[in-house]
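Input chain follows. Return structure tokens only.
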Amino acid sequence: MAPAPSPTYSAVTLKINGEKHTLSVDHRTTLLDALRERLDLTGTKKGCDQGQCGACTVLLDGRRAVSCLQLAVAAEDREITTVEGLAEGEHLHPVQQAFLDLDGYQCGYCTPGQICSAVAVIEEHAAGWPSAVTDDVRPEAGPQPLTADEIRERMSGNLCRCGAYVSIVQAVARAAESAEGKEAVA
């Protein structure tokens, strides 16, 4: 039962994976806790709960965000995508498939956050956003290759305690190649 409206609770409508969910939440409730504890979307993991590990990464309006630092009330009217919302029916998202094919996980705890970050990394790179290791950041230089160094830098906010980084980089590279191939065909 939802608490009555008060100075510390608000009704919020969250659009998650294309579906609207209306909840009454304490103003201090993080998006991570709303997802896991109120909506049973447990794919998003609580790792450090301090915004340092990336296990709780989701996409907010297509951009990656650590949900443990995002208040649920501040996510109202935004498009929230969790790892559960990436697949289309029985067809995995290309990033999910690449992680599966290339063993981009070991224990799997960080994998949902890694996958959500990888989706955003590929889109950021395709849009021409430079990273700290991009050699030529001039707009007229055009898109730079998505090298292993670029992937490592762009994914550096997501930690893997098992050390599956080699496979993670390979999976992101394969998914990026797949995305580039689809754009060339379209």
